[in-house]
UniProtKB/TrEMBL annotation:
Residues 1-125 form the CENP-V/GFA domain. Belongs to the Gfa family. The keyword Amino-acid biosynthesis does not apply. This is CENP-V/GFA domain-containing protein. It comes from Parathielavia hyrcaniae. Keywords: Lyase, Metal-binding, Zinc.
């Protein structure tokens, strides 16, 4: 899938033709990060970062005490990728990917939702705890450094 920041300085292809999972997160951190009601993430196997000269990284602690690496375009500030060192998957921010189908997205942290959750959606009051990505789960759970 094609992805890019708002100004187009950073663009890349995802490593697989579709994400392993889609999340719409209603937690307070995602609301602050997006300046909106929720954040969106498409989960992909870890891949080499786009041109590192055009990216900057913000680091913050997660609620589980891990470090979240948040990569964004130096020119326009668009948040593009989130990663943690202990997973071999990354979250590509949903708004930068062309052609995603959000109908099957999982809504998480709905206890702090600012908008109604669509009827019939898979939804969890807090984190879903559902990070099973099928037959590739064991390989994806192995820590590997994000390169680029």
């Amino acid at each position: 899938m094609n992805a890019s920041c708002q100004c187009g300085a950073v663009s890349f292809k995802t490593p697989t033709p579709k994400p392993l999972a889609l999340y719409i997160c209603h937690c307070h951190d995602c609301q602050r990060q997006t300046s909106s009601a929720f954040g969106t993430s498409a989960i992909f196997p870890r891949f080499t970062l786009p041109d590192a000269e055009l990216l900057s990284c913000y680091k913050r602690a997660t609620s589980l005490g891990q470090t979240l690496f948040c990569y964004f375009c130096k020119q326009c500030g668009t948040r593009l990728i989130h990663s943690t060192p202990d997973k071999n998957v990354v979250a590509v921010k949903g708004g930068c990917i062309e052609g995603l189908d959000w109908r099957t997205a999982i809504h998480i942290w709905t206890k702090s939702a600012m908008v109604p959750i669509p009827e019939g959606s898979e939804a969890y009051s807090e984190d879903s705890g559902n990070t099973k990505y099928g037959s590739v789960q064991e390989a994806l759970d192995q820590p590997v450094g994000l390169t680029g």
